[in-house]
Amino acid sequence: xxxxxxxxxxxxxxxxxxxAERAGRDPAAITLVAxxxxxxxxxxxxxxxxxxxxFGENRVQEALPKIEVIGTADASWxxxxxxxxNKVKFIEGRFAMVQSIDRVAVVEALDRRLxxxxxxxxxxxxxEEPQKTGALPADLTTIAEAAQxxxxxxxxxxxxxxxxxxxxxxxxxxFRRLRALRDETSQRLATPLPVLSMGMTEDYPVAVExxxxxxxxxxxxxxxx
Length: 225
Hints:
Number of strands: 8
Distance between the termini: 15 Å
Strand order of the largest sheet: 7-6-5-4-3-2-1-8
Structural class: alpha/beta
Radius of gyration: 17 Å
Number of helices: 8
């Protein structure tokens, strides 16, 4: 159906508004990151036509041809998947934010390569799942201090990928923990860290209630891949 994306987007926005109201939050303070991995440029153009502006890609190599075709004037591109140090050369001028910084080596490699400012988030593996990327909570301070010392990086906050569960309520403690880690890190660095990127298709209502400022939604918007 041609109106599927429009209908899904309206449903998502209504859900965000409802959850934000329950938490006493302004839904306008929540950025929707449309996850476009595996989707063609035509679908992204459709999303832009409906007012979506921020797009999340998991892999640099998959994102590059889309960015080449669509550009950066009407779309803000976020890398939300793991960044290897040998891919940092492709970031500048293409991505507005890298949400998946998880080690000091990537901080240093990016900073050496960049000639202009780049916003970043530190990805934290809050649940300490061994199969997932992301910094362990114990390593967060070291990475955050390296990011703060970098000349070209602007640390804006934290990101997490919650465990896959059947009941979204089970990951509420994960989101609360990320928010607490953000607050602790902000205090330690004496700098504002306003961004909490947490919440995906399965659990974004809970994430909104727990303070998410960015939601990374794929299937909720575009349907099954």
